[in-house]
Specification:
two-stranded antiparallel sheet; about 45% strand; 6 strands; single chain; 1 helix; alpha+beta; 4-stranded antiparallel beta sheet
């Protein structure tokens, strides 16, 4: 699997959510609405999710392997830092 494109939309304001990202995989599939969040331990990504009937949030799409999640997170955060000047 290769991430062939990353798009970042920087959000204005002082909230914890800093940007929304979309990734293209193998020039064939896109995952939208990946959030870039500034948490207590620094920046991290949150995969797209929806609220369930019991009020919890469940990911709609997410990597199965930790290595894949780490690779996606690193690539998105690098692109965010590049575009935001951080």
């Amino acid at each position: 699997m290769e991430i062939t494109d990353i798009r970042i939309r920087i959000l204005e304001g002082d909230g914890k959510m800093k940007a929304i990202a979309s990734i293209t995989i193998d020039d064939e599939m896109v995952i939208h609405d990946i959030k870039v969040v500034d948490g207590e331990k620094g920046l991290f990504i949150a995969m797209p999710s929806k609220k369930t009937a019991d009020g919890e949030y469940r990911d709609i799409a997410h990597p199965i392997k930790t290595e894949t999640r780490n690779r996606i997170q690193t690539m998105i955060l690098d692109k965010f830092r590049q575009e935001s000047g951080q």
